Amino acid sequence: MLNWTDTLSSLGARFHIDEASQVEDFGRPLAAAELAGGFVAAVTDLGLIAVQGEDAASFLHNQLTNDVEHLGQGEARLAGYCTPKGRLQATFLVWRDPDTVYLQLPRAIQAPLQKRLSMFVLRAKAKLRDATIEAPFAAVLGLGGAKAETALRRHVATLPEAPYGKVQGEFGTVIRLADAFKAPRYLWLATAEAASSALPALAGELALGGAQAWQLAAIHAGVPQITSATQEQFVPQMVNLELLGGVNFKKGCYPGQEIVARSQYLGKLKRRTALATVDNPAVRAGDEVYSMEDPGQPCGMVVNAAPNGLGGADLLVELKLGALGEDVRHGAAGGPALRFEQMPYHLDALDI
């Protein structure tokens, strides 16, 4: 049997210093321009919770910000899991098969989130398990950029036609995600054997990356991921989750639902998440940012960040709407300046 880690090592993978199974890159960080041309990334930092049983969908429907009961088997959705105060504890990519609903999230927060969700199962006929290394999902590849669709079709004949569509077969599961760099982005979950067979050929056509490349692509797609550094910091709208279809305002109650709805309908939301770049490759999620108009207190927080291959980092940053036109600095009032870039979707009436 082919070992997925051995395959990645043979291609020159550099593993995370603290997480031996997680691939950072293959020698160097990739730049956004390389991703735009076409890339394949070994996605090793995400985990998978499987929720199985006849009440699995209804149980999750009552816990998450999105509609799970009406989630079709040919689609996927984003969703959030909030505290009673409406603050996000996690964001998920959610999909299902006939008897199981799957929640993908960062491995670093999977175990405590899985334990917390399990506490609320009570009498529901649903069981949660860690499906991260189960055979159908043992290897995960992310693809995007101009050449990715053609390259992936050599291995998967039929691909989802629209974002958040899903196809499944002997090849595994392919989910199309939000576009980045004006091109489709795909998540391919497969057996170690299938991925080990396909990756060398894909790497011959596309730029090869790891977690850095996949995170950078998600940042340029404007899709946030809650991590351990940002848990309980944001109401869903602060990270644009409802703009990405991750909140259903017509569904029933879930933890924090009243506050999320109040933010939406009473016009109290004064913060959003924007795309920016900064000349500091060490920027991390949870770092604070400061406006020079009011340098005595932070105006926002980094949601996600990844080295951009050019000596700096690209990031999604949550901040006061008024600060978007101001001089904003990372870390402190004297820190490096953020340069805001065009988002792939509109933030209300703001053209950024």
Q: Main traits of this protein?
A:
about 350 residues; alpha+beta; six-stranded mixed β-sheet; six-stranded antiparallel β-sheet; about 20% helix; globular
Helical content class:
10-25%
Strand order of the largest sheet: 10-11-12-9-3-13
Could you name the ranges where pLDDT drops below 50 across 5 or more consecutive residues?
A: none
Order of helices and strands: HEEHEEHEEEHEEHEEEHEHHEEEEEE
Query: Radius of gyration from the CA trace?
Result: 20 Å
**Beginning-to-end CA distance, first to last residue:** 49 Å
The number of E-state strands comes to 19
Per DSSP, what share of the residues sits in E-state strands of 2 or more residues? 25-35%
Individual helix count: 8
Major beta-sheet overview? 6 strands, mixed
- Overall pLDDT metric: 95
**Based on helices, strands and strand pairing, what is the structural class?**
alpha+beta
Overview of the structural elements:
The termini are far apart. The chain has 352 residues and is α+β, with helices and mostly antiparallel strands. The longest helix is centred in the middle third of the chain and has 14 residues, at 192-205. The protein has eight helices and 19 strands. The protein has helices at 4-10, 32-37, 56-61, 107-119, 148-153, 192-205, 211-221, 257-265; strands at 14-15, 23-25, 39-42, 46-52, 76-82, 88-97, 100-106, 127-130, 139-144, 166-169, 172-180, 183-190, 207-209, 271-278, 288-291, 300-307, 313-320, 328-330, 339-340.
